Input
Amino acid sequence: MYPYELTQNPYPCSPTPTIIDAQILGGNRHKEAKAAVLSCIEDLRSKMVGIPTDKDFRLITLIQDVGSGKTHLSLHIRGLEELSNNAVISYVDLSQVLPRDMHSLYKAMLEGFTDEYVNDIRRSVVYFLKDKAEQNIKDAKKIFHYGFFDLIKGRNLGKKAEDILQNKIIPNYSDIHSVLKKEFSSTEISVLKLIIEGKLRANAYDVSSLEDIIASVSAVSNLNFKFLKKLTIFQIDEFDSDKESVEFVKAVINAHLPSTVLMLILTPSSYEEIRRKDISVFDRLEKANYKIDLAGSNILEEILDIVFEYIKYYDSKHTFTVDNERDLAAKIKVIYDEFPDFRNIRSMINILYHAMENAGRRDAAIIDEMAIDDTIKSVYPGLRIKGSIMGVPLSDFIKIRRSSNDVQSLESDIRDAVRNLVNYASEMGTVAKLEDTNGKSNGIDVIYNDPTGTKIAVAVVMSKDHVKSFEQISNTIKSSGSADKLVILTNSNRYCGTNETSVVNIDRRKMIDLIYFSSKYKNNEMMLDDDLQRALMLAKSIKLC
Amino acid sequence: MSAEEQIAQRIISSGSLGVKKTDLRKEFAEAEIDTILENMVTHGNVFIDKKGAAYYCWYKDHYFQSLLNSDPKFRLTYEAIKSLEQSFNRTSDGLAKTIESLANSIPNLSKLTIAENEPVVSEKIENDQLISLQFEQFKNEFDIAIANYSNSIGWVELSKIRNELCGMYNMSNEEFYRLVEQLTNKYQDKYELSTGGYEGLTVRGLLHGFVRCI
Output
């Protein structure tokens, strides 16, 4: 059993979306983008009256950075049940098309249609011809090899049509042309023959020129509308500035394919490249009917919404409560805040997939801290905090950060850590032994002599009226003459030091460095030379030695 | 000595009084006096002007003196300009001394210590506010640059903004990208980075060379 009483891990483990993963769509930005695409399709459908013309073409651009969910959104739209009665969709991933010549691009467009579509249109066309035969249209029966003996044996045309669909008989292709020539163009008839043969997607190399290819694609769109009453949508993913692709797409746009929506999916970088390389195509993209972007798709709220959507999709018992949501959001926020590397949905889903597996193995009711810690350790073992002198592992960082929310205890931990650090430096012979300040501290936490014999007093000042505290401590030192120099460690960054007083700002990362060191020191884990070097570097960075 | 040189010598020797053109014609009867004078006037070495009923020739320096002596309006204008020049020079000298003095004081200012019982903290707060102001100023300029350069979908190449702001503030590229990193981290929900481009910030090992406001 997985956390939140889920029977399966809701998160995908694939680094790129699959059709099944794409059934789930979270995030307001993605939902708005989906609504825009559906609106475009609906708009086009509402304008379609009678035979499709070149006015019935729409262009959509979907532009956003890698890993922001463009492909996920495209696949989600492709799999939408509500669209299945209105449109047929061909999805092309240009990153899988090489070489990028017009034939391979055309082939990819045809192969982008689903098997279900190919079967549907084949059935529709065969039954269309059967209807012609039943209406005694000249030569129509010949297509089915329907003759006198069939009549005697009681075989009807419906049976013959099914035989063709099951490839039991081969239709008489020579008669198809004479039956259809009044209603269809020669290109359409060629395409129809391929459909009946079940070879539509194998046709790519039988056309010689770009003009023929465009005519064929146009015919496919026309036939889709005529036989299935559906629009045709071409989704071209990973569209870039490759010359052949750009030229091909330009031709497709210029052709105004009837009853068709062309959806180009690209990154801002590719968009800029196209602007540089082919201003004519760029101009066409600029004039797209819908320019969809997923602005802000990587902000925390969006990521949380998507992450929860996966759980809710599989949470048939509604056991994922508001409290669960709040708890998980807090854990994700720590990762999001501290690590720019994880500020994208793909990385976050990867962490949650592993955390879910980890928690599932332990039968944990929720994704707990251990699940995240273990995930970080096992999935990102080499990951260290950026800017951390002590090389704090990510899992330790998260743990310390979570436990340091209380400012009082944080100050106390820092004070201990500073004392431990000076002690350690003293043990290593870098500074002299520290003096006992207990009972007479007056804000001073540590006093010791540095290698030059200067007496240093250290004060940790946090969560206080800093101005007052600094003045008090400074006055104490001056009046008592107990130290030659004062080092104030503070979380405020509003002050700088003087000759007698060094004010050192210690940000959250440095605090965590100190606490991490302190923990290792107390547990006698400072074993390696590397640890020694790092600890001394930490001491130097906060002007303790 | 050529005729031209002899004529030039004659004009120079006449000083601020100048020499009559007709006298020159008499003295150098064999020379093409008009051509030679025209040539000298073209080069700006000699000036010819009417004094009384006759045309006189002056060497350039002497002509200036002649005007000062003979034309009161010219003399007054010249004196006014001279006075303005002196005043400007005095101001420039004063400014240079102030700058020099300030430059000398900077190291001392940085060494200033907190005097006993003197609340210098407020000065430090001002300092800090200055730093904060600079960051805010950078943010404003950055936002303006995004608005100016963004394409129809809002994205801008960071290099374009870097070009403008580094030129404007005499800032190094490293400093620019340090501030951009700080800015995009501080306002995560305001800015969005995108991969690509030829320069920018590296996130997840990917070069992010585009930015836009969300």
